[in-house]
Specification:
Layout: E1 17-22, H1 34-42, E2 45-47, H2 56-61, H3 73-79, E3 85-88, H4 96-108, E4 115-120, H5 129-143, H6 152-172, H7 175-197, H8 206-219, H9 222-225, H10 233-248, H11 263-277, H12 289-302, H13 307-328
Helix pairs in contact: 5-7, 6-7, 11-12
């Protein structure tokens, strides 16, 4: 490998092209863009400092010759002399030292620089960072003394706490907290799926969870993925309820309603099921406090109001009243 770096002699002093070809580890190796394959096939020299780079077997199969070397930025500039094109395939996490050196050389004004180009050869698909999350969680589950000993039952309280913190962020309109709390809930989902993967009798993975969800969404949206039509939210809801009923084959409208959810949410859910099936709703003339609360929750549900959210909003307002009263006192 020639490493001429002087700027005196011609024709080697004629600047060429230096291309940094970046790839994503979240995309299967070998799935490169057409411009990337064109550059790789036409380049005068392809250099990859990482002999274990996942792209190398596919480049060899395609007849692209790659030199395993780690030349400096100055050496690479010299290799482009005479109008040559040099392609560098950095490691998957990039090569900040190389890019910094090239930037210093270009800014020095003392080196005749080639045409520099950053060419993404593969791009992350939407959701690509979820693959990183799965890999990170897998390692934590294997190597962390705390996480490696957890079970699903012991994590339930954290799942509930994170869900409530997410609800609070949404209702308070805090966008930064909203994003963070979504991540915390997602963490719980991925962690529970990773724990389930270790089950000796009935294991399943995050892919099983996602696959089942995809199938369910497609089946319950025939107006999107099938031949049915729905022009209004009400028609969508009707499709959803009908397909759910076909899937579950429930004998009672109360089946599938978790009884350990907050009381107002439970009351509203039962009222929603009853209203949809044309069954009796609770009356507001009961004497017991519980009966009156049940009827009030059913009334709120019928008016399109979430009784849990409404009571939380009222409680927050009342908290403000109490604080004002304390300040005056």
């Amino acid at each position: 490998m020639s490493t001429r770096t002087d700027d005196a002699a011609a024709p080697d002093a004629v600047p060429g092209r230096l291309i940094l070809l970046t790839t994503s580890h979240r995309v299967a190796p070998g799935l490169l863009s057409w411009p990337a394959w064109q550059v790789l096939r036409s380049a005068d020299l392809v250099v990859c400092p990482d002999p274990a780079h996942p792209q190398l077997p596919y480049l060899r199969e395609a007849g692209v010759s790659v030199e395993h070397a780690a030349p400096s930025g100055r050496d690479l500039v010299g290799l482009t002399g005479g109008g040559r094109t040099v392609v560098v395939i950095p490691p998957g996490d990039g090569d900040p030292a190389l890019t910094d050196e090239l930037a210093r050389l270009a800014g020095s004004g003392r080196v005749r620089m080639p045409e520099l180009e950053l060419l993404p050869a593969s791009y992350d698909l939407p959701g690509g960072r979820l693959l990183d999350l799965v890999q990170v969680m897998d390692r934590i589950r294997r190597e962390c003394p705390w996480t490696s000993t957890r079970d699903a039952e012991g994590l339930v309280k954290y799942l509930i706490e994170e869900a409530y913190e997410l609800v609070e962020a949404i209702e308070e309109g805090d966008r930064e907290a909203y994003r963070e709390e979504l991540g915390d809930v997602l963490l719980q989902v991925v962690l529970h799926a990773r724990i389930a993967q270790d089950d000796a009798d009935e294991p399943f993975s995050i892919d099983d969870v996602a696959g089942g969800l995809v199938d369910k969404l497609i089946h319950r949206h025939p107006h999107v993925f099938g031949t049915e039509t729905a022009a209004t939210p009400e028609e969508v809801h009707e499709h959803w309820q009908r397909t759910k009923a076909q899937e579950k084959r429930r004998e009672s409208v109360t089946e599938g309603v978790p009884l350990n959810q907050p009381a107002l949410a439970l009351a509203a859910k039962l009222a929603s099921r009853a209203r949809g099936a044309g069954l009796p709703l609770p009356r507001e003339d009961g004497d017991a406090v519980g009966d009156r609360l049940l009827a009030l929750a059913a009334r709120a549900q019928g008016e399109g109001v979430d009784p849990e959210a409404a009571l939380r909003a009222a409680a927050r307002a009342y908290r403000g009243v109490l604080r004002e009263a304390e300040e005056r006192a």
